[in-house]
Amino acid sequence: MRDQYVLGISAFYHDSAACLLYDGDIVPAAQEERFKRLKVVAGFPSNVVAYWLECAGIQIDDVQYVGRVQGSSGMSSGANSRARL
Questions:
Q1: In the chain, which end has fewer C-beta atoms inside a 10 angstrom radius, N or C?
Q2: By the 8 A CB rule, do 74 and 66 touch?
Q3: Long-range contacts, stretch 33-41, CB < 8 angstroms, 24+ apart
């Protein structure tokens, strides 16, 4: 069975962040502000995503699912988010 990677993204509002799950376990997670050294970064967490993919030794095509937080109402499907990566 192929290894399963899931990318979780919180973006476009207060404290953007990303995490990478490997076979159901959170491997790394961080906020974009740690990479930009600025507080309250509200854009897309591109530095975090690139770093986690590099650390895992994978490409975005190896990620099976992308989930994203949409506002304060909870999780939403991230089907369209992959195009932004």
A1: N
A2: no
A3: 40/14, 40/15, 41/15, 41/16
Instruction: Specify the pTM.
Output: 0.70
CATH of the domain at 64: 3.30.420.40
Domain hosting residue 22, numbered range: 5-84
Q: Which residue has the tokens 């159901």?
A: 24
Q: What is the mean pLDDT of each run of 10 residues along the chain (85 residues)?
A: 85 83 86 71 83 91 89 49 48
Q: Name the domain count of the chain.
A: 1
Alpha-carbon gap, residue 84 to 70, rounded angstroms:
15
